[in-house]
Amino acid sequence: PVPRSLRTMGAGLQETSAELSNGQTLRVTASFGIAPLDPELSVRDSIRNADRSMYAAKEAGRNQVRVWKKP
């Protein structure tokens, strides 16, 4: 399950927009990938797992959160 704090942060970003000097408004989207620090893995491998989760979130569409699960 996705931690509540990440769901809250993602919901806040979905409501964010930026107005450009030319009057155009851009909506902000964000996808997150998270992975726990596993004492059996190096920090580098844990970061790699978070990165894989992030790309899975991006492939799933905008404003997604994916959590790494051991295969």
Fill in the keyword field for this structure:
two-stranded parallel ribbon; 4 strands
Report on the structure:
The protein is an alpha+beta fold and 71 residues long. Helix content is 41%, strand content 17%. It is built from 2 helices and 4 strands; from the N terminus they run αβββαβ. The strands form 2 sheets. Strands 1-2 form a two-stranded antiparallel sheet. A two-stranded parallel ribbon has the order 3-4. Strand 1 (17-19) and strand 2 form a beta hairpin. The longest helix is centred in the C-terminal third of the chain and has 18 residues, at 43-60. It starts with a helix and ends with a strand. 11% of the residues are buried.
The count of DSSP E runs of length 2 or more, i.e. the number of strands, is: 4
Task: Determine Rg (CA atoms, Å).
Answer: 15 Å
Number of helices: 2
Distance between the termini: 16 Å
Give a quick precis of the structure.
With 71 residues, the protein is α+β, with helices and mostly antiparallel strands. The protein has two helices and four strands.
Write the topology of this structure:
Blueprint: H1 4-14, E1 17-19, E2 25-27, E3 32-34, H2 43-60, E4 65-67
Parallel strand pairs: 3-4
Antiparallel strand pairs: 1-2
